[in-house]
């Protein structure tokens, strides 16, 4: 059986006789997830990652942070919450999020302050590990087979996750690769412009203008970009 063949036998958190949802023991789940996390950190620590909570960070250039986060599913109340194939209950499961945080973009928002550890939601570039490994979303079931689960995560990080992060390990690579990111954010060009503003202002202003010109007139984002450019001292011309 291959590393990710377990997907074919994905278990359900239900009682087969009654059809009612059975909830895993919270303390047991925490213990199992702690064990899985220890194995993952044992792999990541020699690579320069530090840990806080269930998130790992590594600074690869001044102000560039790689983020790996263990996200556990929360319990969703109500029998009507689950819509198979559309909305699932991930309680008792976890997934792995990846991200890259660029400090000068993060700090553009006045409420964003420096942190000891940055979370995946702080990142401008984000991905989920299993989108890279098996091309689909997947949440591992938290069970007592900790070594097997940890190995699957570590294998995924080794084969795909760390390489993906390293595509954006410095500003040169971010500016070169961000536009080619499959399924990437439409505002990637704006993020590149914000990085270039500190390196090549003329290039940054051209990127700003190109990005601004391609936003629909009645789109509220156009006003946001105009306000941002005014705040940064970048002059934009209305050509429409």
UniProtKB/TrEMBL annotation:
Domain of life: Bacteria
InterPro entries: DUF4304 (IPR025412)
Protein name per the record: DUF4304 domain-containing protein
Originating organism: Belliella pelovolcani
């Amino acid at each position: 059986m291959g590393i990710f063949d377990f997907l074919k036998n994905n278990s359900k958190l239900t009682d087969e006789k009654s059809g009612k949802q059975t909830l895993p023991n919270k303390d047991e789940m925490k213990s199992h997830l702690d064990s899985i996390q220890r194995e993952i950190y044992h792999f990541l620590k020699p690579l320069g990652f530090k840990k806080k909570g269930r998130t790992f960070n590594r600074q690869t250039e001044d102000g560039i942070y790689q983020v790996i986060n263990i996200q556990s599913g929360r319990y969703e109340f109500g029998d009507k919450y689950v819509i198979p194939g559309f909305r699932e209950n991930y309680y008792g499961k976890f997934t792995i999020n990846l991200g890259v945080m660029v400090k000068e973009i993060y700090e553009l928002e006045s409420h964003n302050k420096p942190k000891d550890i940055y979370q995946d939601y702080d990142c401008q570039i984000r991905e989920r590990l299993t989108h890279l490994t098996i091309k689909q979303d997947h949440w591992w079931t938290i069970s007592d087979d900790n070594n097997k689960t940890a190995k699957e995560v570590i294998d995924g990080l080794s084969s795909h996750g760390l390489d993906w992060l390293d595509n954006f390990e410095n500003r040169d690579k971010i500016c070169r690769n961000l536009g080619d990111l499959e399924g990437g954010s439409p505002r990637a060009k704006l993020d590149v412009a914000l990085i270039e503003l500190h390196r090549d202002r003329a290039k940054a202003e051209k990127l700003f203008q190109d990005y601004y010109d391609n936003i629909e007139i009645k789109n509220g984002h156009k006003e946001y970009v105009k306000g941002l450019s005014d705040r940064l001292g970048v002059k934009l011309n209305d050509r429409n």
